[in-house]
Amino acid sequence: MIISMALFYGGLIQILVGMLEFKKGNTFGTVAFSSYGAFWMSVAALFTFNKLGGVWAVDATSMGAYLAMWGFFTVFMFIGTLKMNRGLQVVFGSLTILFFLLAISDLAGIATLKTIAGIEGIFVGASAMYVAGAEVLNEVYKRTVLPL
After folding, report:
1. Residue-wise pLDDT tens digits, 22-40
2. CA–CA separation, 84 vs 89, rounded Å?
3. Whole-structure pTM over 0.85, yes or no?
4. What is the pLDDT of residues 103-133, one digit of tens each?
5. Which is nearest to 40 in space by CA: 3, 66, 73?
6. In the 8-state DSSP scheme, what is residue 54?
7. How far is residue 17's CA from residue 128's CA, in Å, rounded to a whole number?
8. Which site from 11, 16, 34, 46 is most exposed, i.e. has the minimal number of CB atoms within 10 Å?
């Protein structure tokens, strides 16, 4: 179930939304949706290859480095949100923290840190769902239903 969600909802749909943002001329939306969509598709592939074993198996050091690079990318995306609404700042700020927590837990082999990252991930997901809901409801009702 998780691999399917990562491939299709996290991956394919976000890439499609990124292309729609490109059509609207929204560089931030294009880069964010397309990049994180590709991230989810690559994570699904990495975990699938890891389960299959063989030459494509991913060790903790490699995964930690991969997640750290996404953390650095997300820092720049977070900086881009500083001219946007507070909701996006929370999502990208907490996502930055999440990537680095995951990277450090893999690189240092600290299981407790992975649990903390899991809790942080729930917060990231909940805040992203709130922002998505607020953007939809605020647009539909043409007023602020949920503040951003």
Report:
1. 999 999 999 999 999 999 9
2. 7
3. yes
4. 999 999 999 999 999 999 999 999 999 999 9
5. 3
6. G
7. 15
8. 16
